[in-house]
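Is this the right way to post structure tokens for a design question? Let me know if I should format differently. Anyway, here goes:
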């Protein structure tokens, strides 16, 4: 009976073409019913329920933004989105779902790039968007406690008047939520300077799958009292519980920030350049970001930031954006100028030229060239995105070899793959390898996988440096994790979520 009802609902919803949608791995899980929605309406406000199953059903297209992911590759068919406003409401939802074996997908800003934030089938979507209040901020310690649904940009704006910044920053900051950042252990543009969220997150409030509230929302800098459970939820991608509150250490805002884009004649110069920049700028270096020529050209083509002059980009094979954050503008500018002088006056200069920002607007514009690559790629076509960790010295080789591999398969032409490009956080050893195609096609995916994962494994790298596993890479986990690691991960999942209701089909197969 249940199976028949589930099938009928799937047919009623628009089904987009998306080859990645899979069957729910846990056949024992149930779909949401009218009775479930009637139960939720007893304790949720009417505007916290968007469902085709409620007495006032929503139009199916109202569910579109929740069912489809940012890159348009993963598509769910959920009938119901709940948007609780309190931790208690989240607790009641999860308790009901656990008792009735209903699968739940926690959703933040839905900017994830590995299909983790949308259902693989018709799971219930639990959106944190209505939990968006700052709970407290201590300007002395810089410790911020906020609801998980706060948008990263709004938290940045909140702490700015107190001369603090968020320790994490990424291109999706206008939409992604702090809970989503923690759930994906987002890296981003400031990791080089402020470290990962495993260090800056001080405490979490998490609703466990059975509805119990795990209150670890401490604001302590030091707490050595046995197992640090919060670490398990950082990067768990919603498979162990729903994060509802985050306590995070925000660093003091730098008194001066500068940036410069350096145009390099050859990729071979990136590593020696990194060494020189680190040595010369030492404590004020806060970002060292790499963009290859194709990525730069696409960013410019799609209006991300202001293009450098033709003269500045002539003969450049790639670009590096260097940011400094320090305590005194004159001191930092002097250091940057000394660096540029040194680079340009060398017998065999590592760079062709450097464009230094001269105003806050130019600072933003130079950053936009780098931050805007993700958006430019999505405007250009359908992107296969691999965020991998490989030795810095092999960044270019990996991009070039992938391009040649696709060419050898006859897939590098206008009707299939248009661009193969690389960019990323050199300082963190993280390469974003993007393959931009006209459409998502099985033959392209088959050519890319397991090819790319085998390349990563050969370098003893990671198949996911920051975006996570989501639904996209569950099958590829063994390329980066040993059998023992995966066995222990499954046991941990079993301890927290014995009924398997939390984000099924994500992280673990
Ligand atoms: C333009 C652009 C630039 C990006 N740049 C970067 C970058 O530099 N570095 C980087 O790491 N990522 C980057 N990303 C990827 C993405 O923005 C991050 O993964 C981000 O942290 C996701 O946050 P979100 O709120 O959108 O989460 P969602 O996409 O909604 O969810 C992501 C995962 O977290 C889970 N989740 C969300 N909220 C919760 C919660 N409260 N409790 C439990 N689980 C939850 C979801 O179930 C899902 O598995 C970028 C994305 C875009 C579109």
């Amino acid at each position: 009976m249940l199976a028949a009802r589930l099938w009928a609902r799937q047919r009623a919803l628009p089904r987009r073409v998306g080859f990645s949608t899979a069957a729910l791995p846990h056949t024992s899980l149930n779909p949401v019913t009218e009775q479930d929605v009637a139960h939720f309406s007893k304790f949720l406000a009417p505007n916290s329920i968007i469902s085709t199953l409620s007495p006032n059903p929503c139009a199916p297209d109202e569910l579109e933004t929740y069912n489809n992911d940012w890159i348009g590759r993963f598509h769910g068919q959920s009938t119901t989105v709940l948007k609780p406003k309190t931790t208690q409401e989240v607790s009641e939802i999860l308790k009901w779902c656990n008792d009735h074996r209903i699968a739940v997908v926690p959703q933040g800003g839905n900017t994830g790039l590995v299909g983790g934030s949308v259902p693989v089938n018709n799971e219930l979507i639990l959106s944190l968007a209505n939990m968006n209040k700052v709970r407290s901020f201590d300007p002395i310690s810089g410790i911020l406690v906020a609801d998980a649904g706060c948008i990263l940009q709004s938290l940045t704006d909140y702490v700015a008047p107190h001369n603090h910044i968020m320790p994490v920053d990424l291109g999706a900051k206008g939409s992604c939520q702090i809970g989503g950042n923690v759930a994906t252990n987002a890296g981003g543009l400031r990791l080089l300077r402020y470290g990962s969220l495993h260090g800056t997150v001080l405490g979490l409030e998490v609703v466990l799958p059975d509805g119990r509230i795990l209150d670890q929302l401490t604001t302590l800098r030091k707490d050595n009292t046995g197992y640090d459970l919060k670490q398990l939820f950082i990067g768990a991608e919603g498979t162990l519980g729903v994060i509802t509150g985050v306590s995070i250490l925000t660093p003091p805002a730098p008194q001066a920030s500068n940036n410069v884009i350096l145009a390099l004649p050859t990729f071979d110069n990136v590593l020696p350049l990194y060494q020189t920049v680190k040595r010369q700028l030492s404590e004020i270096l806060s970002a060292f970001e790499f963009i290859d020529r194709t990525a730069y050209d696409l960013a410019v083509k799609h209006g991300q930031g202001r293009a450098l002059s033709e003269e500045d980009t002539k003969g450049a094979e790639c670009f590096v954006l260097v940011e400094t954050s320090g305590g005194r503008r004159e001191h930092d500018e002097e250091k940057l100028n000394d660096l540029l002088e040194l680079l340009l006056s060398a017998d065999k200069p590592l760079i062709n030229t450097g464009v230094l920002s001269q105003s806050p607007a130019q600072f933003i514009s130079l950053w936009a060239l780098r931050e805007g690559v993700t958006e430019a790629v999505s405007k250009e076509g359908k992107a296969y995105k691999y965020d991998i960790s490989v030795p810095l010295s092999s960044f270019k080789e990996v991009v070039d070899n992938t391009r040649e591999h696709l060419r050898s398969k006859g897939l590098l032409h206008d009707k299939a793959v248009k661009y193969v490009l690389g960019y990323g956080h050199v300082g963190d050893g993280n390469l974003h390898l993007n393959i931009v195609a006209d459409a998502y096609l099985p033959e392209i995916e088959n050519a890319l996988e397991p090819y790319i994962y085998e390349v990563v494994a050969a370098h003893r790298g990671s198949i996911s440096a920051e975006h996570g596993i989501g639904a996209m890479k569950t099958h590829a986990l063994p390329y980066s994790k040993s059998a023992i690691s995966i066995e222990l991960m499954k046991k941990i999942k079993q301890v927290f979520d014995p009924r398997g209701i939390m984000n099924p089909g994500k992280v673990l197969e």
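Format looks fine. Someone answered above. Worth noting: Residues 70, 105-113, 116-117, 128, 148, 170-172, 176-177, 179-181, 183-184, 186-188, 237-238, 242-243, 374-375, 466-467, 470, 503, 506 surround flavin-adenine dinucleotide (CB under 6 Å). Residues 1-23 have pLDDT under 50 and may be disordered.
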